[in-house]
Structures are given as structure tokens and as C-alpha cells.
Design brief:
The complex is a heterodimer.
Chain A (H helix, E strand, L loop, with lengths): L2 E6 L2 E6 L4 H7 L23 E4 L5 E3 L10 E3 L3 H17 L14 H8 L16 E2 L5 E4 L8 H9 L5 E4 L6 E4 L16 H5 L5 E3 L4 H4 L4 H13 L1
Parallel strand pairs in A: 1-5
Antiparallel strand pairs in A: 1-2, 3-4, 3-5, 6-7, 7-10, 8-9
Chain B lengths: L1 H9 L3 E6 L2 H5 L2 H14 L6 E6 L11 E4 L3 E3 L7 H10 L13 H4 L17 H6 L4 H9 L2 H11 L11 H10 L6 E6 L8 H8 L1 H15 L3 E7 L3 H16 L15 E7 L8 H8 L23 E5 H13 L1 H5 L2 E2 L2 E2 L1 E8 L5 E6 L4 H8 L9 E6 L5 E4 L9 H7 L7 E6 L4 H15 L5 H18 L6 H16 L3 H5 L2 H9 L1 H10 L15
Parallel strand pairs in B: 1-2, 5-6, 5-8, 6-7, 11-15
Antiparallel strand pairs in B: 1-3, 3-4, 9-10, 11-12, 13-14, 13-15
Helix pairs in contact in B: 7-11, 7-14, 8-9, 8-11, 10-12, 11-14, 18-19, 19-20, 20-22, 22-23
The chains are: A alpha+beta, B alpha/beta.
Chain lengths: 235, 539
């Protein structure tokens, strides 16, 4: 495998060809914020938190889906990027009902910790929350669409790792929602195996297990672990 | 066959072309067609007079339109009752009936009709007519005299740029697909326009479906792609019907399918219908839709040229781009490169709508100024009102004021002014239009059409609309303008695809060119035009 040399925030790094900027940064201990990236499943490019700058282009690029290039000079933390990340969090926090004090994910929420990490402590936009449905029909899995940030980690883990594709999206734009089978109640979802992977990877409190502390449910490594085990089984 | 058909056509002294495009049909064109057929029959003129059903010559507001050849006499607003009178006067006495003659010759004065070469003059449902007008000669030339690389080089030499809006070099794209590893290769004709006030692609498909099909077959030869999809929306029933019949006729003459015209070329063309989402015209979303998934864009790279449909190299071109291909092959790339302006050769079709005397579909050489389009071709603003702005590029285009009308129409100059070429929509606004309300109208459209995948577009546009609503309800504050500009710029920079990257344009350009109108809404709590909810007296 050919290797590629580039610099990230002035640090010289070397990674295999085909690696994304995000993976290259993570492998070298450089943190780039993200909400939709999940190791072990395909990248989505939706949350736009991991935007970076590449010398020679006025544009910004999502680190999760941009492959590294020889001699690339990547900046991950310019003032413009910090502004953009805060803007993305501002938008997400004002989009749907994110009230930490009454949320099951309080204290174990990636949106909450990123907001605090990046200094988002005031909302500049009007809260304009829709009233979306909560599905409590399953024996132990719950989906509260009011807390969903549409990162689609649950959909990708359900499709690519569990292989059942119970979850998907319906409608579009601000109406977009995660649905179960063809918009069924969860208890009637014939394809669902009840594996809980969706709850393990949800970055917020949108999908969770009834009566279980989120800190013990969450497992961001689950997709990566299974993917690696599968790979090693074939080697 | 072309000769045979031309001989057949020559037998007629007159040809009566009745426009039966969607817009004329809605005005009763089918009844007009029947009346002409009946009149010709009753007057015993069937040997001298051919009554043909055609596509749109472009003069949509004047429908139902009838074009009588020779001499290109244009009759407008024709009623079924007047058909017989027109035949009696024009055909029997040889005197055109002045009462119905189209009175706006300047509408065609500055046009150059290449893509729309056959529109309004040919029966789109009769492949023989297309062939008699030089159709499929380019394909024959490719198959008999040109190698695959010759064709690609000709397209490259022409300098043609994608007419879907982004303006990427077509020849460059063909080279990428040609060199890309992977098989099979696919070709997609993109006929998914969904912008309000834009109907150029639909009209082209209704008037000249074979130009698109021929362009696709030539691409299949040049790129060794054996499968093509023509993607359109279910909301275009007449275009669909026309294309279906055209594909069927091309198959029956051996121009589509296996061993085309007896050569080794195989090309299977399939019509695919989408449910009609604005986003489905984006090149990566169209892939998802054809693959049977939700039409959502995906990040690039990989580009469709290297990894498109089912991961295979795929050429995606707007149908207007494709309709240019036969002309380039026939006349040479160099001929094409001399039309328009050097960095942007050829012509562009525009749908001309809004507060304008002569709305319709036009085709003009690139580099023509907006002023010529609006005032000379379009005839300016009707009802004694004054021109205020022109929205160029559809709902995610920019609102340009009078001071920008000197701009030549090409991709770069429009982008610099804050607009886009887009799919060719030009909407004219007069002094009665409130710019805050106009911006909100187009943002509304993009809010509804955002696919929901990325944060800036899905949420940002909703917030922009909210702020505009606040300003419209007399609750705006001065810093709202900065906030609009800040969020607008963010959405443009950070969005995943072209929809989000251009959606804030109407807001950003109205702030740039009509800031005083925003200030009036915010500070005086009044709308200078009195046209929006706020009213001239304020709320």
C-alpha cells in the first residue's frame, strides 16, 4: 500500500493512500469534532462539523469523506472553522427539542459535550421546535424523534453491521425523520432483531433502552469491533 | 430515408404547424389541431396542405400558436373557430390573416436556435421528420467515419460546458469517463428540472426528443457505454409520452438496442421516472434515485465519472447539453467554439417569466447581456410598470438590479454578481415586488426541497426563513441583516451539495442590492412597495 505524506495543523504525518483526512488526524492524535462519523460504517458527510481547510483552495472540506493527497496542507482549527462548527451546533441545538435537564442522555451526550467544548452557551436562533412522535411500543427500545440530530448512525449500523436495515429516513428537509420499517410502530417491526446497536451508537438521547443508564448503553466502538472481527475471520 | 421524407414534404405547398406543447394544450391546442385538420379536409386541400402537431416554438404566452410555412407566419391566440378562416385566407387566397399574426418579431430577433433547431417546426412523434431535418446524420457520421477518440476530441474542442448549471467542461468529463476503469459504463440524461418558472428541458423533450436520444447514442459510442437512463419526473406526462414513443421509434429503426445500424454498437436506453424532487437533479442524488434509493446527494469524490451508478463509471449530462452533441459532431467542434464567447461557447436556453411582455422559451448565444434578454427579446415590463430586478438561475439564483443588466450571460460573470446560470430560469420583477417577500418565497421553496441530509441546508435555511418572517411581521431588528448574511454565507460554504451551496443566493443578493428595502421593513416597519403582508402603512 502506497503511503501519503501530508501536514495537519503543521504536523507532518504519513498514512496509507486512500485514508480520509479525519482518519489520518485521529491516527495521529489530532481531534476533529464530528457527530455523524462512526468507525466501522460508511461515512455520511451530513453533520458538517468536521470541515477543514486545505491550502490552495478557498473552500472547506468535510474531513470524513475527503481522501488525503500527497503534500496536502490541512488546517483543522482556523477561526473560520471554529465559527462554522459553532454555527452547526447552534443550528442543531435550535432545530429540535434539546433540553438537557430532562434528557436521558444528560451527561452522556455528544452534542452536549461538543457544545460545551466549543463554547456554545447561548443560542442566537429562535427555538422553533416541531412536535414529533415518540415511540414507546417496543419492549425495551425507545425512539424520541424530538431529540434526533439526523446523523443516521443508527441507520448505518442497522444496515451495514446488523444487516437488517430496519431503520431509514422518511420525508425531507426539516420534516426528515428516522422511521422503523415502513413507518411502523417499533413493536410491529418484523425486521428488527432487537440488537440495541442503534441505541449504542446514538450520539444523543434519541434512541435509548428503557430503564437503563445511557452511560452503560452507549458503545461507540461496537461497529468498529464487529467490522474488525469480520475482517480477521476472512484473513 | 431522409431524402424520401424530404420529397414527401415537398409535395405540400403549405405546412401548418400547430404547437401542442404542455402550455398550448392547456390553452386548447388539441381542439385547434382538430379544427385545422377538419378545415383542410373539408376544403379539399389535403394534397397541398400538411397539418402537423409540433412542439413549442417558444412563444408560450401567445398560445395556442400556429406556424405556417413557407414564410414562418406566426399566428397567436388561435381558436378552433378561427382555424377555417385562417386556412381560407392564408392557403386559398394566399393572404396572411393579420388579426392573428404574432406581433412581437423582436422575440426572435436576438435568438440563435441550435438546441431548439426543430422546436415548433417538426412533429416530435414522427422520427422520419427528424431524420428529414438532418437527424441521426451525426450518429451515422460517428459510426462510419469517426473513432471513439475522434468524437471525444470534437466535443472537447467545442468547449461545450454542462448546461445543467455548473458549467463543467463536457469534453473533460467525457475524457474522465472514457479513461475510468470499470465496466459496464453508464450514461444518464438528466431531465429533472424542478425549479419554479423553469421549463426549458421539458419543452425540449416535448419538441425534439430525438435530439436528446441521438446525443445519448453518440455518447454511448464514444464512451463504450451500453446502458443509458433518461431520468425525468412523473410530473411531465407529455414529455414522458413523447420520449417513450421516440425511444420506441428509434428502436424500430435499429437506432437503439443491439447492433445499431448493423455495427457492433449496442445501447439500451431506458426511461426512468422520479417522483419529482428538486434534489433528484443533483448528479449524485440522481444516482441514488436510479439505484432505487432515496434521492440524497453523497459527498464527492468519488465523482460519478469514476464511480457512479452501482459504483461504475457514469456520464451524467443535462439533456440540453446532450442535444448539442449531434450538432458538434456534424459541424465540428471548431464551428461550435466560435458561437457565443470563447470561454463559454454555444447557446443557452432560458425560460423567461415574471413581469415581462413576452414570456416564453428562448435560446440565445452565450455572452448576450441581460439587458438584451429582458428588454429586447422579452419586451421589458408590461402595464407601464418599472423594471426592478431579475432573478437569474431559478430559486437559488440571484436577484440582480438594473445596474447589473449590462452583464454578459456566462457562468463566471453571473456567479460574480451573486447569481448562477442554474438551469436557465429568468424571472423578471417589477417595481411592485417586495424584495424581502421575494427572497422569502424562494427560500420557502428551498426549505421544502432540502433533502435533510446536511445541517447547514436543512436547519440553516429554516432559520433564514424565520428571520425573514420576523422582518416581514415588523419584528425585525437591525442586526438581523448581519445575521442573515452570516448564516447565508455559512450555508453556501458548508453545505454538502449544490442545493445548499446556492440556496441563500436570493437572500444574499437582495441584501447586497436592495438593502434599503430591508432597512425600511426593519426601521420604518413599512414595505416601500406596499405589496408584502406588512403593507405600505406598516403593521
Amino acid at each position: 500500500m502506497k503511503s501519503v505524506r501530508l501536514t495537519i495543523d503543521g504536523r507532518a504525518v504519513e498514512v496509507p493512500d486512500g485514508t480520509t483526512i479525519l482518519d489520518a488526524a485521529m491516527a495521529n492524535g489530532i481531534k476533529i469534532p464530528t457527530l455523524c462519523h462512526l468507525e466501522g460504517v460508511k461515512d455520511y458527510g451530513g453533520c458538517r462539523l468536521c470541515l477543514v481547510e486545505i491550502k490552495g483552495s478557498p473552500k472547506v472540506f468535510p474531513a470524513c469523506t475527503t481522501p488525503v493527497g500527497q503534500g496536502m496542507e490541512v488546517t483543522t482549527n482556523s477561526d473560520r472553522l471554529k465559527e462554522y462548527r459553532k454555527m452547526a451546533l447552534q443550528l442543531l441545538l435550535s432545530e429540535r427539542a434539546h433540553i438537557c435537564s430532562v434528557c436521558v442522555a444528560n451527561g452522556a451526550c455528544e452534542l452536549q459535550s461538543l457544545a460545551s467544548e466549543l463554547g456554545v452557551d447561548q443560542l442566537i436562533f429562535e427555538r422553533d421546535w416541531p412536535e414529533l412522535s415518540v415511540d414507546l411500543t417496543h419492549a425495551y427500545l425507545v425512539i424520541d424523534r424530538n431529540r434526533c440530530i439526523l446523523c443516521t448512525r443508527c441507520i448505518r449500523v442497522c444496515d451495514e453491521i446488523e444487516g437488517v436495515h430496519t431503520l431509514d429516513l422518511m420525508l425531507r428537509g426539516k420534516e426528515t425523520q428516522v422511521v422503523i420499517d415502513l413507518n411502523e410502530n417499533w413493536k410491529n417491526a418484523t425486521s428488527c432483531t432487537g440488537c440495541r446497536k442503534c441505541a449504542k451508537v446514538c450520539p444523543v438521547g434519541a434512541i435509548y433502552v428503557k430503564g437503563e443508564a445511557l452511560s452503560s448503553t452507549k458503545d461507540k466502538e461496537v461497529a468498529k469491533f464487529i467490522t474488525e472481527r469480520r475482517r480477521s475471520a476472512f484473513e | 430515408m431522409a431524402e424520401e421524407e424530404r420529397e414527401k414534404q415537398k409535395r405540400f405547398r403549405y405546412r401548418i404547424n400547430v404547437c401542442c406543447s404542455s402550455s398550448c394544450i392547456s390553452l386548447g391546442a388539441l381542439k385547434v389541431l382538430k379544427s385545422f385538420e377538419r378545415a383542410v379536409k373539408e376544403l379539399g386541400l389535403e394534397d397541398q396542405c400538411k397539418v402537423a402537431r409540433t412542439g413549442c416554438p417558444g412563444t408560450c404566452s401567445a398560445g395556442p400558436v400556429v406556424l405556417i410555412e413557407p414564410g414562418d407566419y406566426f399566428y397567436e391566440g388561435v381558436t378552433p373557430e378561427s382555424a377555417r378562416e385562417i386556412v381560407e385566407e392564408h392557403v386559398i387566397r394566399g393572404i396572411p390573416l393579420k388579426r392573428f399574426l404574432y406581433s412581437v418579431p423582436e422575440f426572435f430577433s436576438k435568438q440563435k436556435r441550435l438546441v431548439l433547431r426543430n422546436a415548433g417546426k417538426m412533429d416530435p412523434l414522427d422520427i422520419r421528420e427528424y431524420i428529414s431535418r438532418g437527424g441521426y446524420a451525426a450518429l451515422v457520421k460517428c459510426l462510419t467515419k469517426m473513432s471513439e477518440d475522434d468524437v471525444i476530441n470534437e466535443v472537447f474542442k467545442s468547449g461545450l460546458r454542462g448546461r445543467g448549471g455548473a458549467g463543467f467542461q463536457t469534453g473533460q468529463k467525457w475524457k474522465f469517463v472514457s479513461k475510468a476503469a470499470g465496466s459496464p459504463k453508464y450514461i444518464i440524461g438528466n431531465l429533472d428540472e424542478g425549479d419554479p418558472g423553469v421549463f426549458a428541458n421539458r419543452t425540449l423533450a416535448e419538441a425534439d426528443p430525438h435530439a436528446i436520444i441521438e446525443g445519448m447514442i453518440i455518447a454511448s459510442y464514444a464512451l463504450k457505454a451500453e446502458k443509458g437512463y433518461l431520468y425525468t419526473r412523473a410530473e411531465y406526462p407529455l414529455a414522458i409520452e413523447t420520449l417513450k414513443k421516440a425511444i420506441q421509434q428509434a428502436k424500430s429503426l435499429g437506432l437503439l438496442g443491439e447492433k445499431i445500424l448493423g455495427t457492433d454498437l449496442n445501447f439500451d436506453l431506458e426511461l426512468r421516472l422520479g417522483a419529482g424532487a428538486f434534489i433528484a437533479g443533483e448528479e449524485t442524488a440522481i444516482l441514488a434515485s436510479i439505484e432505487g434509493m432515496r434521492a440524497m446527494p453523497r459527498p464527492r469524490p468519488p465523482y460519478p465519472a469514476s464511480s457512479g451508478l452501482w459504483g461504475k463509471p457514469t456520464l451524467i449530462q443535462n439533456v440540453e447539453t446532450l442535444a448539442n452533441i449531434p450538432l458538434i459532431v456534424l459541424n465540428g467542434g471548431e464551428w461550435f467554439s466560435k458561437i457565443g464567447v470563447p470561454h463559454c461557447p454555444g447557446t443557452k436556453c432560458f425560460s423567461l417569466t415574471g413581469k415581462i411582455k413576452n414570456p416564453g422559451l428562448i435560446e440565445v448565444p452565450m455572452g448576450i447581456t441581460l439587458k438584451e434578454v429582458v428588454f429586447e427579446i422579452g419586451g421589458g415590463v408590461p402595464d407601464g410598470r418599472r423594471f426592478k430586478a431579475v432573478l437569474v438561475g431559478g430559486p437559488s439564483g440571484g436577484c440582480l438590479p438594473e445596474s447589473q443588466l449590462h452583464l454578459p450571460i456566462d457562468y463566471e460573470s453571473l456567479t460574480k454578481a451573486g447569481a448562477i446560470m442554474g438551469s436557465g430560469g429568468i424571472v423578471v420583477l417589477d417595481d411592485e415586488s417586495c424584495m424581502v417577500d421575494t427572497a422569502k418565497f424562494f427560500i420557502d421553496f428551498c426549505v421544502d426541497e432540502s433533502c435533510g441530509k446536511c445541517t447547514p441546508c436543512r436547519v440553516g435555511l429554516v432559520k433564514v426563513r424565520k428571520i425573514l418572517e420576523r422582518i416581514g411581521h415588523a419584528k425585525g431588528v437591525e442586526k438581523d441583516i448581519d445575521l442573515l448574511a452570516k448564516v447565508g454565507e455559512y450555508i453556501k460554504e458548508a453545505s454538502l451539495c449544490g442545493l445548499g451551496q446556492t440556496a441563500p443566493n436570493p437572500v444574499l443578493t437582495t441584501i447586497r442590492y436592495f438593502k434599503e428595502e430591508y432597512m425600511a421593513h426593519i426601521l420604518d416597519k413599512k414595505c416601500p412597495t406596499g405589496r408584502c403582508d406588512m403593507g405600505a402603512e406598516g403593521s
